[in-house]
Amino acid sequence: MTRHLLGVHPPLRGNLHTHSTRSDGHLRPDEVLTWYRDAGYDFLAITDHQVEPRPTITTSSSVDGILLIPGGEFHPESTRHGDRWHIIAAGVPAGFDATAFDHDPTGLIRHLHAAEAWVSIAHPSGQGVDATDVEQLGPVHAVEIYNERSRWWDERVDGWYLADALASRGHHIGGVAVDDAHFDGRPDHGHGWVMVEATDRTVDAVIGALKDGRYYASQGPRIDALSLTADTLRLRCTPVEAIFAAGRGQTVRSVIGDNLVEAEIPLASFRGGYIRITIRTSSGQRAWSNPIHV
Ligand SMILES: [Zn+2]
Ligand SMILES: [Zn+2]
Q1: N or C: the chain end with fewer CB closer than 10 Å?
Q2: For residue 109, how far is its CA from the centre of ligand 1 (angstroms)?
Q3: CA 68 / ligand 1 centre spacing (Å)
């Protein structure tokens, strides 16, 4: 029996973390939506900082041809290091107000789940957040495993350390690549996205697919199909120079070659843990699957 993880529905390309003039971004919501639409995106979550003066959630768009996902970046106090949390939520309903949770991160997470939002930990490396911190925070759907803005902020772009640690502890956790675009003169847009296999082009379908893990993250290359049988993971992708399967601890299988477009990975060494795929083109662009428990 084959379990098809990716390659079932045509994917929608989207960015799940963006700022506008409603917080510290430099473009208005309609300008940001227009930029992403013209760059070939299907959806965009506008996630302005929910700090004073607290903007209402952006829920309506005047821009045709791109789906707006209402969202926010929430900053309750505080992490173990005394910093504000950076928590992204998408599919946030109109009128959602987190004021009561400014000093209650776990309450905020419960409130977001009650609103049926999808929740992720933004740029965890930037706050030094670890797996125990996230376990104490409460359940989240994903971790930003790549944040483009961080490349122009602190060079702590990588969140896989956290997603791997959570997956190793048995948590079902996704990995998303995002821009965290601000359009303030730095080239922080168009470099990290998700490809979501939603059943149709609606907010509910995108959020549902995100919660189900039916997506992968990319900087360029595509994962066209990913499937599991009892003993093998199969992958089809656009041409790459390297395909890596990583699991718990130092468990890894790699395939290196010219213009690789497929791989078959035996699952035996990943059993009892998880497996996740990274592919890399000859110019260094990567795409990543979510961790899959096997
Ligand atoms: Zn942030
Ligand atoms: Zn942000």
Answers
A1: N
A2: 16
A3: 20
Asked if residue 157 and residue 83 are part of one domain, the reply reads yes
Both structure tokens of 38: 């013209």
89 assigned to some structural domain: yes
Q: Which domain holds residue 245?
A: 223-293
Residue 4 falls inside a structural domain? no
Residue 128 lies in a domain: yes
Q: How far apart are CA 127 and CA 24, in angstroms?
A: 19
Q: Find the 250 Cα to ligand 1 centroid distance in Å.
A: 30
Token representation of residue 208? 């549902």
pTM of the predicted model, to two decimals? 0.98
Residue 244: what residue type? F
- Express each pLDDT in 80-133 by its tens digit: 999 999 999 999 999 999 999 999 999 999 999 999 999 999 999 999 999 999
Q: How many domains does the chain have?
A: 2
Nearest to 174 by CA among 86, 278, 290, 15: 290
pLDDT band for position 35 (cuts 50, 70, 90): very high
Query: What was the pLDDT predicted at 27?
Result: 98
Number of Cβ within a 10 Å radius of residue 236: 15
Of residues 2, 1, 14, 3, the one with CA closest to residue 197: 14
For ligand 1, the distance from its centroid to the CA atom of residue 230, given in whole angstroms, is: 40
- Counting ligands in written order, the one closest to the CA of 85 is 1
Grade residue 17 by pLDDT with cuts at 50, 70 and 90. very high
In the chain, DSSP assigns E strands to 3-6, 12-15, 43-46, 67-74, 87-90, 118-121, 142-147, 174-178, 193-196, 215-218, 223-228, 232-246, 252-266, 274-280, 286-288, 292-293
- Is 22 in the same domain as 153? yes
